[in-house]
Amino acid sequence: MAELDTSGGGKKGGGKVRTKKASTRVDLTAMVDLAFLLITFFILTTTLQKPKAMDLIMPDKDEKTKDQLPVAASRTMTMLLGANNKYIWWIGEAGKSAPTVEKSYAPNVLRKLLADKSKEILQSTGKDMFVIVKPSDKSKYDNMVTVMDELKIVGNQSRAIVDIYPSEVELLKTDGAY
Amino acid sequence: MPRVKVARKSTAIDMTAMCDVAFLLLTFFILSAKPKVPDPVKAVVPASTAIMQIPETDFAIITVGEGKAFYSIEGDDLRRATLETMSAEYKIAFTKDQINKFVHTENFGVPLNVLPQYLDFTSDQRRKYVQPGIHVDTTKENELANWVLQTRKADQALRNVELRIAIKADAQQDYPIVGEIIKTLQKQHVDKFSLITSAKTVAK
């Protein structure tokens, strides 16, 4: 789309030779094309959604000191994460209260469960629920992250990831979640 | 009556403004772009509602996928200092060339005794080589513990800040190796660390 040369032709005949008055306009079409091409490239290559970090704070594990505060069993919820997206949970002491098997980590199941139970415990004891998460060897990393995230969503303040006991693995096995 | 003549207009448009905007955007995208480092293994991180940004410095990532652990340190000076102490610790000598290559290596997953050889590889060889992962076993050989410890020490010495550690694991990764890494960190009294997740919104 170059501009037409509108200045008249060369001088005919004699007289002073004048330099042609060149137009100051530059054709920018190609430059704009190139710029937009590069913009498109950079937009497509940059990762817009950067990964986020979820903080995980573990209780200090000091083998020598045993000054841990006991938490009342009545407000403790234990969750065992098993294979195939199954998990079992109970409130109170192991063996005394029957564990419940759940098959879904979906918000409508897990979040509802956590929210309901923490409300119940808050009403009966006046204190926050304490959740112990025990991922088994067959659970997925995703399961653990989901549980921790859901606990954060329901506003739980005290939660911990603890190693699973062999007896609890047996429990998972009998419930068909291992 | 003479015909009304339509004045012939020039088809050329003034593109100066458009060009300006285009280049402004281009500059912005170039400056904000950060070259993406490919992960050594496929690690599709799980989603969570966490909104914390990942820091750019004083940061180390343990990538886990396919049952293997990989390690990466942010910052050239930190990488150099870590390798130097590691080489002294394990009595494995690195040439100057190898150290320089390590400084530009984004992540690695080889045991320390294979590391010099790995660093000598060309980029093509590296791509073909299947990295075995760093030993992480709380009962036996635990090289990862030493890597983390030396990086923390180096960060303390260089900038006097506590190193932040993140675990970037594949969502479908079996839990045990992640558990081992958490145990490894806890042994050094690193009780606070991050899990890298992709963002999701809370579904009501």
Keywords:
A: 178 residues; alpha/beta; B: 204 residues; 14% strand
In short:
The complex is a heterodimer of chains A (178) and B (204). By secondary structure, chain A is α/β, with parallel strands linked by helices.
Q: Would you kindly provide a written description of the structure presented here, covering whatever features stand out?
A:
The complex is a heterodimer of chains A (about 180) and B (about 200). Chain A has helices spanning about 30-45, 105-125, 140-155, 165-175; strands at about 50-55, 75-80, 85-90, 100, 130-135, 160. Chain A is α/β, with parallel strands linked by helices and about 180 residues long. Chain A is rod-shaped. Chain B has about 200 residues and is of the alpha/beta class. Chain B has one domain. Helix content of chain B is about 40%, strand content about 15%. Chain B has helices spanning about 15-30, 75-90, 95-105, 115-120, 125-130, 145-160, 175-185, and strands at about 45-50, 60-65, 70-75, 165-170, 190-200. Chain B has a five-stranded mixed sheet. In chain B, helix 2 (about 75-90) crosses helix 3 (about 95-105) and helix 2 crosses helix 6. Chains A and B meet through helix 1, strand 1 and helix 3 of A and helix 1, strand 4, helix 7 and strand 5 of B. Strand 1 (about 50-55) of chain A pairs antiparallel with strand 5 of chain B.
Number of strands of chain B: 5
* Main pleated sheet of chain A: 5 strands, mixed
SSE ordering of chain B:
HEEEHHHHHEHE
Which stretches of chain A are poorly predicted, pLDDT < 50 over at least 5 residues?
none
Average pLDDT of chain A, to the nearest integer? 79
Q: What is the overall number of helices of chain A?
A: 4
Number of domains of chain B: 1
Q: Which pair of chains forms the biggest interface, and how many residues does each contribute?
A: A-B, 50 and 54 residues
- Count of helical regions of chain B: 7
First CA to last CA of chain A: what distance?
72 Å
Low-confidence stretches of chain B: none
Q: Multimeric state of these chains?
A: heterodimer
DSSP, total strands of chain A: 6
Sheet with the most strands, sense and barrel status of chain B: 5 strands, mixed
Which H/E pattern describes the elements of chain A? HEEEEHEHEH
